[in-house]
Amino acid sequence: MQLTEVGSPYLHRQHLAVELAMLPAGTKLSEGQDVEQQLDRCRAQQPDLVVCGLGLANPLEDEGFATKWSIELVFSPIQGYDQAADLAELFERPLRRRALIAEKAACA
Amino acid sequence: MKLTLWTYEGPPHVGAMRIATAMRDVHYVLHAPQGDTYADLLFTMIERLPRRPPVTYTTFQARDLGKDTADLFKQSVQAAYDRFRPAAMMVGASCTAELIQDDPGGLAASMDLPIPVIPLELPSYQRKENWGAAETFYQMVRAMCRNAKPARRASVRPRCNILGPTALGFRHRDDVTEISRLLDQIGIDVAVVAPLNATPTDLAALINADFNVLLYPETGSTAAAWLEREFGMKFTRTVPIGVNATHEFIREACDLARIDPPASAAATLRARWYARSVDSTYLTGKRVFIFGDATHAIAAARIAAEEMGFAVVGLGTYSREFAREIREAAKRYGVEPLITDDYLEVEQQIMELQPELVLGSQMERHIAKRLSIPCAVISAPIHVQDFPARYSPQMGFEGANVMFDTWIHPLMMGLEEHLIHMFREDFEFHDGAAPSHLGHAAPAATAAQARANARPVREDPAQEAGAVRVPELAEATAGAASGSNAAESTWAADALQELNKIPFFVRGKARRNTERFAVERGVNPITVETLYDAKAHFSR
C-alpha cells in the first residue's frame, strides 16, 4: 500500500516516535482537524481506500471512495503475527464488498 | 451532579444540529472542542445520511485556551461562509464552549456577513436536545418571518404548512409523506414543510399559508405558537398517530381550512379490522408499559387502550417540558406517570410491573430484551434500524397499519413461546423430534430419551437462580434484593414441571406467590399440591 496521508486529531510525537520512524520516508502527516481542508486533499489525491471515522465514512462512500472504519482497528484484535491476516482482511474487505455488490446494468 | 452511562436526549446543540441538518442552504458554526465533532455520526451513521451535517466546529484544543479562542471562532465563521455560501447561518456554542463565554452571537454579528446570522443561546446545563431543536427552529422562523410580508396567492384550495419534522426524527421522513398525501386527499394543499428540506426562503413563506399542521410538538410547538401570536395562524393540536387521532386530526384540519370533512379518507386502513378480527381476541387486556417522548407515548397509550384493547399499566416520558400532558394522560388510564430521564428508574418500573408488552425507545427495547418481554419501538432515541429502507410511517392510516404489525408481531412470538412450553412434553413436539415436514427422515429417539432432553429437571436452587431463562430473571433479581426467603424454598421436580406449564409471562408471579405461600406456612419442598394450594389461596 502507498500512504497518501496519515492524519490524527492529536499526535503525540514523543509517545509515537517508534511507530512514526516505521512510516515510509516522506509520508505526509497531519494533525488536528481542519476537516474541510483534509477532505480537499483527499479528493485531490483520490486514494483507493480511506481509513476514517464513522462521521465521514458514509459521505465519502457517497462520493465514490471506499472506506474503512478506523474504529475497527481499535476494537479488533490485530496484534502479532497470528492476527496479521485478520488485519490485512480488514483493509481488503471494503474493496471486496464493493466489487461483490457493484451495480450491474439496470433492467430496461 | 449525577453521572450516567447513557441519556435519552443529547445536549441542546444536538437539537440545533437536527434543525440545521434537516434544512437546506443553511450552515451552523458551532464553537466546540474537538471531541464534540462526534455528533456528526448521529446523522451519517445512524440516519445513514450520505452527506455531512452542515456544521463547522471550531475544534479548539486545550492548548488553544491560553490563546484567542474568539478569533478562532471568527476565522471559522468566515471560512464556513466562504466555502459554503449559505443563505443563512446559525452560530452558537456547545456545552464545553459555553463555559469560555466567547459570545458567538456577538462575534458573528460584528463581522457584517451579507446573510442573516442567527445567534443561538442554548443553555446546555439546563436544557436538552428537543428543547434545543424547538428553540432553534423558532429562532430561524422568527428571523426569516419577522419582516416578511404576506403574498397574494392564486391557489383556490386552502393551504397549510407542516411544522416539526427534523433530521434524526423517528420516522419523520415517512410521516411527512403520509400526512401530505392525506391532506391533499381531503382537499388541503401543503405550502411549506419545515424544517425538513426547507430553505430559509421557504421559512419566510410560512406566513402565506392559512394555518399550520403541527406534527411534532417537541420540536415545532415554540415556532407554531409564535406564528399564531404574530400572524394569527392557527395550528392543529391533534397529532395524527392512531386511527381515532387521525380521524380527529382530519376534522380539526378541515375546521381550520373551513371545508367539509370528507365522507371517508380511510380506504387503506386495515388496522381497525385486524384488531376486530377473531385472531386478535388474545390481545384483550394485555398489560402494556409505555415510555418515550411525550407525543409518541401519549399517542401509543391511546392506541393501546382504544384501538388494541390493551391495559395500559405504565406510562412515562423523558420530555420534562411535556410533563403536564403526560400526567393528564396517565390519569385517564389510572396509572402513576413516570417522568424521568434516568433509564435505571424506567428499568426498575418495568421489572416491578412485569408487563406483557413494552412500547418504548431503543433503551426500553434493550431493557425488555434483557427481561425477555416482547417490545416495539415507538419513539426516539433511535437506532440505525429505526430508519428502515421501506416506507414505514407512524402517522395517518398507513401509520396505524404499520403500528398494528410492529406491536403485534412480538406478541405473536410470545404466543408461540407459550404454545411451545405447553406442548414441549408432547411426543410429537419434544426437542428431540425432527420437524414434521421432514417426515420419516427423523432420527429415531426413544420417548424416554426425548423426555429427558426436553426437560432437564433443575432441583438445585443455586443452579436455578443462576440459570438465565430470562422470564425468571426479574424474579431472580427481585429475590436477591428481598433477602434469602426465595432461596429457602426448594421445588420438587414434579412441581417445577407443573410451574413450567404456566404461561411464561405470568410464571414469575406464580412462582413468587407460591414461594411466599410456602415460606409463610413452613412448607418445604414445594410440591404440586403446594402450587395449587397457593393458587387457590391467592385467587380468593
Key features?
heterodimer, A: 108 residues, mainly alpha, two-stranded parallel ribbon, 5 helices, 4 strands, B: 540 residues, alpha/beta, Rossmann fold, 4 domains, 5-stranded parallel β-sheet, 23 helices, 13 strands, globular
Please tell me about this protein's structure.
Chain A has 108 residues and is mainly alpha-helical. Chain A has five helices and four strands. Chain A has helices at residues 17-22, 35-45, 54-62, 70-75, 84-100, and strands at 6-8, 29-31, 50-52, 67-69. Chain A has a two-stranded parallel ribbon. A two-stranded parallel ribbon of chain A has the order 3-4. In chain A, strand 1, helix 1 and strand 2 (29-31) form a beta-alpha-beta unit. Chain A is globular. Chain B is α/β, with parallel strands linked by helices and 540 residues long. Chain B folds into four domains: 12-128, Nitrogenase molybdenum iron protein domain (Rossmann fold); 159-257, Rossmann fold (3-Layer(aba) Sandwich), CATH 3.40.50.1980; 271-418, Nitrogenase molybdenum iron protein domain (Rossmann fold); 456-538, Orthogonal Bundle (Helicase, Ruva Protein, domain 3), CATH 1.10.8.550. Chain B has 23 helices and 13 strands. Chain B has helices at residues 12-22, 40-46, 69-84, 95-98, 104-109, 129-145, 172-185, 200-204, 217-231, 243-257, 271-276, 294-308, 323-332, 343-353, 362-371, 396-423, 447-454, 461-466, 473-481, 485-488, 493-499, 504-521, 528-538; strands at residues 26-31, 55-57, 88-93, 117-119, 159-163, 189-194, 211-214, 234-235, 287-292, 311-317, 337-339, 357-360, 375-377. In chain B, the strands form three sheets. A five-stranded parallel sheet of chain B has the order 11-10-9-12-13, with helices on both faces. In chain B, strand 10, helix 13 (323-332) and strand 11 (337-339) form a beta-alpha-beta unit. Classes of the chains: A mainly alpha (108), B alpha/beta (540). At the A-B interface, helix 3 of A face helix 2 of B.
